[in-house]
Amino acid sequence: MSALNLAPNLTDHDDLYQSLIDMHEGLSEQESLKLWSRLTLILMNHIGDRAVIEQAIEAARPR
Questions:
Q1: CA 45, 51, 53 angle in degrees (round to 5)?
Q2: Please, which domain of life does this record's source organism belong to (predicted)?
C-alpha cells in the first residue's frame, strides 16, 4: 500500500497557488466549483492509487 506524502514537496509553491487563484478569474461560483471538480478528477486519475486518494480525502476533511 502506498502512503500519502504530506511533507512539503513542491517548488515554486507561491506561483502554483497563484495559478490556482487565476484559473477562477471571470468564473461564476458554479463554474468555479465545476472547475475544482474537474481538476480533482484529473489529479486523482494521475495518482491512480485508490488507497492514496482515500488517504488524501481523509487528510483534507475538516477536523
A1: 45
A2: Bacteria
Angle of the 50-60 helix axis to the 29-47 helix axis, nearest 10: 140
CA distance 24 to 43: 17
Do you know the residue count of the chain? 63
Residue 60 has φ and ψ, to the nearest 5°, of -80, -20
Would you say the C-alpha torsion 52, 42, 48, 18 has a positive or negative sign? negative
Q: Dump pLDDT digits (tens) for 23-40.
A: 999 999 999 999 999 999
- Each domain of the chain, given as residue ranges in start order, spans 28-63
pTM: 0.85
